[in-house]
Amino acid sequence: TLRPRSTAPALEVELYDGSGTVTVVWLGRRAIPGIDAGRTMVVCGRLTCNTEKPTIYNPKYELKPTAG
Hints:
Layout: E1 10-16, E2 21-27, E3 41-44, E4 47-48, E5 55-57, E6 60-63
Parallel strand pairs: 2-5
Antiparallel strand pairs: 1-2, 3-6, 4-5
C-alpha cells in the first residue's frame, strides 16, 4: 500500500511478510522509482515502536526482481 501525504513530502509504504506488517517512511520524498504496490523488497533500518504500529524511517532498501 502506497500512501503519499499531501502536506510534507513523505512516502509511506506498508510491508507485509506473512507474519505481520511494518510501516516504512521515506521523509522528503513523494515517490521512489521501482517501488510500486506488490513489489518485493528488503529494508534495513532502526525499528521504532513508539507509535501504534512498528515503523522504520528512511531505511536502506533493496528491490527484488519482479516475477515475469
